[in-house]
Amino acid sequence: MKFNNRPAAVLDPEATGEHIRLLRLQRGLSVEELARLTGDVSVQTIYKWQRGECVPSADNMILLSEILQVPVDGFLCRKYLKAG
User: Fold this and answer.
1) Domain definitions of the chain by residue range
2) Would residue 56 be called left, alpha or beta, if left means φ above 0 and alpha means ψ between -120 and 50 degrees?
3) What angle do CA 65, 35, 71 make, to 5 degrees?
4) What is the rounded distance in angstroms from the CA atom of residue 44 to the CA atom of residue 34?
5) Model's pTM, two decimal places?
6) HEC-encoded secondary structure of the chain
7) For each of the chain's 84 residues, which pLDDT tens digit applies?
8) C-alpha–C-alpha distance, residues 17 and 11, integer Å
9) What per-residue confidence (pLDDT) applies to 5?
10) How far is residue 16 from each of residues 3, 31, 47, 83, 84, measured CA to CA in Å?
11) Which CATH number does 2-80 carry?
């Protein structure tokens, strides 16, 4: 897949999860504290995000951006599909 003759960018779940983990640690938050601050996200879900097993929903991305004090695209990581 190409867009304007460039490889298409897609979300990289593993890199995004690692970035969420690093931002959480930089803010001095435990997984439990982050789960509490989100209001309804479980500890297990946050661990899944951090392992790249899934990515936050759009609503949770907005919530995380507020908690972690970064723009939404500040923790999302992209990878590029090879043309072919």
Assistant:
1) 2-80
2) beta
3) 5
4) 11
5) 0.82
6) CEECCEECEEECHHHHHHHHHHHHHHCCCCHHHHHHHHCCCCHHHHHHHHHCCCCCCHHHHHHHHHHHCCCHHHCCCEEECCCC
7) 555 666 777 888 999 999 999 999 999 999 999 999 999 899 999 999 999 999 999 999 999 999 999 998 887 888 887 765
8) 11
9) 67
10) 22, 16, 12, 23, 25
11) 1.10.260.40
Q: What is the pLDDT of residue 78?
A: 81
62, 51, 44, 64: which is closest to 13 by C-alpha? 51
20 and 63 Cβ atoms separated by less than 8 Å: no
Residue labelled with tokens 């297990």:
44
